[in-house]
Design goal:
Serine Threonine Protein Phosphatase 5, Tetratricopeptide repeat; alpha/beta; about 290 residues; Glutaredoxin; 3 domains; five-stranded mixed β-sheet
Length: about 290
């Protein structure tokens, strides 16, 4: 066995320490093997090469299934070689038999946290603890090293918008490339910013209700009412107002009833029950 710091012989006595605990911060690939198993001997050098190449981004734990029969039985090992990938204390993937190197790489890569991701995680922890200035400093420092990271830009935009800096949030969203702009979080945040702008300087709800009492087809009043209801979290009735506008006049304010509905769908997300209900109603109305 190599004396590599990234490769370990593992049994019942050290499994907790070398696999479960180490996997909290990085992937650990556990290879169940035996001396008599020819496929095991075939795959061993490739796994060792990957462990050296990744230089600690994941670790390789080798379990001799003949010598560690209790451990092999615990994990239901029925054929060799069997590889189980642990991350954050749990089995997240597994393979049996001789597997191509590309497949092993792909399995491991899914669970490797980049330096940027680690910094973002630390920054978000600081933000959740109320240290907004520190979080933004860490995030902006990370962005300077990874300027094309669209998800990072959106994360910063979400924080600065939450702090009331709409201009900076929009500048970050506007700097996204075409793919970045299609991220669900980017679409949702832009819709939230648009909605916040719409809610500013609205007429009093009582005044709006008075106008609608006099004229139930007052489309401007319906639009304003929908925005008040949205701010109150009454999404079904807000969407009903917008659907009424669509039903009454598609040409009003460049089809603002429909576009406002779509923006509200973006804000709430496709799984929200009101979105599912009114997406169907809008589809039936338009078709």
């Amino acid at each position: 066995m190599s004396e590599s710091p990234y490769i370990h012989n593992v049994g019942m006595q050290n499994f907790q320490n070398l696999v479960l605990e180490k996997s909290i911060n990085k992937p650990v690939l556990v290879d169940f093997w035996a001396d008599w198993c020819q496929p095991c001997q075939t795959i061993m050098p490739m796994l060792a090469k990957l462990a050296e190449e990744y230089a600690g981004k994941f670790e390789l734990a080798k379990v001799n299934a003949d010598e560690e029969q209790e451990l092999a039985a615990h994990f239901g090992i029925k054929s060799l070689p069997t590889m189980k990938l642990f991350y954050q204390g749990q089995i997240v993937d597994e393979r049996m038999g001789v597997v191509p190197e590309s497949e092993i790489r792909a399995m491991i890569d899914k669970h490797i946290v980049s330096e940027s991701d680690q910094m973002v995680q630390a920054a978000m922890m600081a933000y959740q603890q109320g240290n907004t200035a520190q979080a933004l400093e860490m995030l902006n420092s990370t962005l300077a090293k990874d300027p094309d990271n669209a998800e990072l830009k959106v994360t910063i935009a979400q924080i600065v918008f939450g702090e009331g800096d709409t201009e900076s949030a929009l500048a970050l969203l506007d700097s996204l490339d075409n793919e970045g702009a299609k991220l669900d979080a980017a679409i949702k945040l832009r819709a939230e910013i648009n909605l916040a702008a719409q809610l500013a300087d609205l007429p009093d709800l009582g005044e709006i209700e008075q106008r609608l009492a006099q004229n139930p087809n007052d489309l401007e009043a319906l639009l304003h009412k929908s925005r008040h209801l949205t701010a109150q979290g009454d999404y079904d009735n807000a969407m009903e107002c917008l659907l009424t506008i669509v039903r009454s006049d598609r040409g009003y304010e460049d089809d603002i009833g429909r576009t406002s509905l779509l923006e509200l769908f973006d804000v709430l997300g496709g799984e929200h029950p009101s979105v599912q209900k009114y997406r169907r109603k809008l589809f039936n109305l338009l078709h």
